[in-house]
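Mods, move this if it's the wrong board.
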Amino acid sequence: MNQPAMNERAIGEATRGGGLLVVAQWEAKEGQADTIAGILRDFLPAAQSEPGVKLFLISRATDDPAQFLFYELFRDEAAFKAHQESAHFKAHIAGQALPLLAKRERKQYALM
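Not the wrong board. C-alpha cells:
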C-alpha cells in the first residue's frame, strides 16, 4: 500500500479540529494475504474520498505480509458510521475481506 508522504502542514490540517481515530489490525488467514491486499487496493481510493475522512492509511507489515494496519481519522463518530454504511465498505470489507481474516482488532481514540 504505497502512500504519499505527509508533511507537517498536511498532518496539521488533517488533525485540526480533532476527530475520531480508528486503528485496526488484521491478520489474514493462511494463503489469503495477497487476496486481501488486492481487495484493499481497490477499496482504499473510495475510503480516502469520503467527505468525513480526514486521513485513511493502510499498511502491510514488511516482516509478515499477512499483517495489515489501518490508521483512519474521521471528522466525528457520524463520519465513521457513514463509512461503515458506505457501499464500498459493504462490498469490499464486509463482503470480501472479513471472511478471509484469521484475526481483526479495532480500537477508537480521541485526538488530544
